[in-house]
Amino acid sequence: MVKTIIDAHNVSKTFNPKTVPVHAVQNVHVHIEEGEFVALVGPSGSGKSTLLNMMGGLDEPTAGSVIIDGVEITKLSENKLIDFRLHNIGFVFQSFNLIPVLTAKENVGFVLQLQHVPKMEREKRVLTLLEEVGLKDKINSKPGELSGGQQQRVAVARALASKPKIILADEPTANLDSKSAANLLDIMAKLNKEEKITFLFSTHDQRVIKKARRVITLVDGKVASDVQQTPT
Amino acid sequence: MMLLKLAWLNIWRNKRRTIITATSVFFAVLLAIVFRSLTDGVYDNMIHNVVSYSSGYLQIHQKGYWDEQSIDNTFQEDQQLYQVLLKNSKVTHIMPRLQTFALASYANKTKGVLVLGIDPIKEREVNNLHDKIVAGEYIESVSDNAVVLGEGLAAHLKLKVNDTLILLGQGYHASSAAAKFRVKGLIKLGALELNNNVVYMPIQQSQYMHGAENRLTSVSVMLDKATNLKKLKQSLQESIDSNTYEVMSWKEMIPEMDQFIEADSTAHYIIIGVLYFVISFGLFGTLLMMIFERKHELGILIAIGMKKRLLALVLLLESIMISLLGCFAGVIGGILFIKWFTIYPIHLTGELKEVYEDYGIESIIYFSSHEKIFITQTLVVLIVSILLAFYPGYKVMKLKPVEAINS
C-alpha cells in the first residue's frame, strides 16, 4: 500500500493580513505519496515557493495544516520543527547556499554533525554521497572553488546526508547551465528511483518538468491542475 | 568542536575588519594594563614607604592597645612570638617598638613629641633610616645612650647634634619617666608630621626610661608582597594567642591613606571604563555587520536543521574570539612593556624628584606586575564580548527562516 508522505490540508497563506492582504496560497489540498517525483509549476507569484516553504516547515500557514509522514508539523514548537527538518527533510535552494568557509566534505558532513553521527560513520557517508554526485575529487574544495553545477551537487549531497524521506527543492536548476542542470536531474532521478526518496520541486524549468512523474500547477495561489505524466 | 571551528573560520571571512576590531581591543587592553600597573606600582611604593617608617604592614599589639594607646597596655617581649612570626614564609622582617609620648625640652623650648623606641639595626634593614640622616650619625645599637630627632623637631627646639635633649613623660604603671640624651643625629623624613615630632631612641634606653623593661607597644611586621596582607593577617591571627594579642593591618591603622587610594582608584576605574565603552561600540558594530551580512546564510542553517541557540552560540564564540585575540595580544604587549620598566624603572629627575623625596617617597616609578591586573583585564574583555553578543544572539532567536533566506 502506498503511503502519503506529505498532506497539505486546506492550506492558505496571506501576507500582510492587517494592511494590504496578499493571498499567496489559498485553500490548497495536496497529497504526495512516498517515492513520488513531483514538479510544482506555475508563473511567478503563483505561490509555488510559499507552498513549498510551508510543506518544509520553513513558513507557517495562515490556515490549514501540513502533515508529513503522520506528523502535523504546523503544530510543532519551533525547536521540534527544526529537529524534524533535520531528520526528515532535505532542502536544495536556488542559489546553492553552502557555507562558504567550509569545504565540500565539511558542508555535507555539517548536517551529520548536527545529528551527532559518529566521526567514522560520518566520513564514510560523506564520501559515499560526494561520490554519488560525482564530486569525489572535489571533497576538499570550498564553494568558491566550485562551479555553480558542482555547488548544487554538493547541496544535493548535503540534503541527502541526513537520509531524509523528502527532498524539497526550490528552483534547483535556475542558476545552472543545461549540462549541469541535466546532470543534476539525472542524479536526483536516480536517487528517487533507487532510494525511494520523495522529491518535490518548485520550478519553471521545462527540463525539470519533463523529468517529473507528476506535475502540480498553481495559478494565483490555487491548484489549477494536478496531472500524472511519463517522464522523458 | 564544530561550532568552534565554524566561529573561527567565520571571523576570518573579512580579515581586515577582524584585524581592525582586534587591534582596537589590543590597544584598550594594553592601555588599561599599563595604566593599572603604573597606578598600582605608585600606590605600592607609597604604601611601602609610609608603612616602613610608621606602622609596618601589620602590627601586633597587646589586646586593647589600639583603643587606649597607653604604656600600661604594653606587653612583655616574647621570643616565642618572634619565632612564630618569623616562621611564617610571608614575613620578611619584624620590628619591635616601644612608642610613647613625652615632653621634649631644650633650653627654653619645649614640645610634645612621639618617642619611638626602636631596634636600630632591624629598622635600617627595612626603611633605610640611616640614609635619611642629614646631620650627625645614626644610632648603632639597642643600648646606645643617644637619640635621633626629626629635622623639623630639632629646628623647633633650636638644637644641634651633640646637644642634650631632656624628655619628660609618663612611665609604666604611672611612674614618671624622665631622662636626658645626647642628640646623635638629625633625620629628614618625608612625612611632615613625623619629621616635626619624632624622637628615635634605642629600644632598651626607652624601656629603661619608662620603667618598662622588656616591654613593647608593638611588633611591626613587613611582608614579602603587599597583596599577601589579608592572608598574612589571618594566618597570624590564627597562629598567635588571640586572647593576648591583636593583629592590625596598615589599612586599619592609617585609614586615611587607604581611603585616598580607594578614591584615586575609583577615578582610574572610570577612565578605563570609558575606554572600554568606546571600544565596545567598535566590537558591537562588527558583530552587527557580521549578522546582517550573513542573514541569508543563517536562514539556510536554520532551514537545514541547526537550532537557533547553536547559531547564537556561534556568534557568541565569534565575539569572544575577536575580543580574546586583541586581549591576548594586549596582555603580551603589556607584559613586555611592564617587564622592560621593571628592569629599567623610571627614575624621576628635577623638581618632581624633589617633591617625591620631600614626601619621603622613593623618586622611582615602579610598575606593578601583579597577575591580578592581567586577569582582570582579560575577564573584563571576556565579559564585554559576552554581553555584546547578546544582541546578535537575540536577533538570531527572532529570525524567521524564510525571511532570512529571502533577504
TrEMBL record, chain A:
Keyword Nucleotide-binding applies: yes
UniProt domain ABC transporter: residue ranges: 6-232
Keyword terms: ATP-binding, Nucleotide-binding, Transport
InterPro entries, A to Z: AAA+_ATPase, ABC_transporter-like_ATP-bd, ABC_transporter-like_CS, ABC_transpr_LolD-like, MacB-like_ATP-bd, P-loop_NTPase
Highest taxon, organism lineage: Bacteria
Signal sequence, renumbered to the chain: none
SMART domains linked: AAA
GO molecular function, one term: ATP binding
A Pfam match: ABC_tran
Parts of the chain that traverse the membrane: none
PANTHER family in UniProt: ABC TRANSPORTER ABCH.1, IMPORT ATP-BINDING PROTEIN
Protein name (record): ABC transporter ATP-binding protein
Annotated source species: Kordia aestuariivivens
Lineage of the organism: Bacteria, Pseudomonadati, Bacteroidota, Flavobacteriia, Flavobacteriales
Automatic annotation (TrEMBL), chain B:
Localization annotation: Cell membrane
Keywords for this protein: Cell membrane, Membrane, Transmembrane, Transmembrane helix
Principal cellular location given in the protein's record: membrane
One Pfam family from the record: FtsX
Membrane-spanning residues: 267-289, 310-338, 373-391
Membrane topology, as annotated: Multi-pass membrane protein
Keyword Cell membrane: yes
Family of the protein in this entry: Belongs to the ABC-4 integral membrane protein family. LolC/E subfamily.
Protein name: ABC transporter permease
Organism, as annotated: Kordia aestuariivivens
